[in-house]
Amino acid sequence: MKEIITREISQFNNELKLQGFKAFQIEDDGAETRTYSRKEFYKICLTTGKSKIHYSDKTYEQEGTILFFGNPHIPYSWETISTAYVGYTILFSEEFFKNSERSESLQQSSFFKIGGTPVLKITEEQRGFLNTIFQRMIAEQKSDYVFKDELIRNYISLIIHESLKMEPSENFEQNKNASSRLASVFLELLERQFPIETTSSPLQLRTAQHYAQHLNVHINYLNRAVKEVTGKSTTTHITERIITEAKALLQHTDWSISEIAYALGFEYPTYFNNFFKKITGTNPTAFRLAEV
């Protein structure tokens, strides 16, 4: 059974990466849980039920029908409370949506931007309309229509624009332990940057300042929270994770040192060599040879 499930997940991810999008119906038995790379795909989810959504440093407790917008750059988790949970989901990459002339609305939308409101409360009338859009997307992705990608993009744009006309829900609560939650969000965001899968998509978040900007908090606040909760500085966590990834790439790929340096966000191989040696006591080439 585990092998079958693994194969289904692998097939799902392959389809998602090839197409750049995937729409599907959420079953009421909880089968909607899918394993996919959250660091690559935006998510719009129309659901009916009771749940808690932990998004950045806020928690949204919802009951009834909601529309949720997930940004791959912001850590979030979903806690389903209802025994029955139904609805629809569309996953799509930024690259897929950027092919649309109206793609700027994605970044400008208050639902996807950091510090925005990712949850909308939906009425029965709105639910009926949105159900139809999701159903059409699901049907269209199975068709042989030559321009179905553009049609899917239009449906996504329609959902976003219809949502912009609705009043955002502010039904959220700050976590009681703000430092603990912020540290958790940081660590989750850090982990989402890995593994590095290709040399053409280098690591984007390399400093504590980068993470503070993505989490929409002051760097001093982030540093205090992380240090208080974990006993380590933000920079130490980032450094340790980059070193772990560097060792894995040196051991398990045939990439050159220059390629690995670039993939990890270093402008020049010399910078990477100095960084690696300072932390490990040896240079990348010597480490690779020692592991052979």
UniProtKB/TrEMBL annotation:
Keyword DNA-binding among UniProt keywords: yes
Keywords per UniProt: DNA-binding, Transcription, Transcription regulation
Gene3D superfamilies: Homeodomain-like
Keyword flag Cytoplasm: no
Protein origin, superkingdom: Bacteria
GO molecular function: DNA-binding transcription factor activity; sequence-specific DNA binding
HTH araC/xylS-type domain boundaries: 180-290
Protein name: Transcriptional regulator, AraC family
Organism: Flavobacterium phragmitis
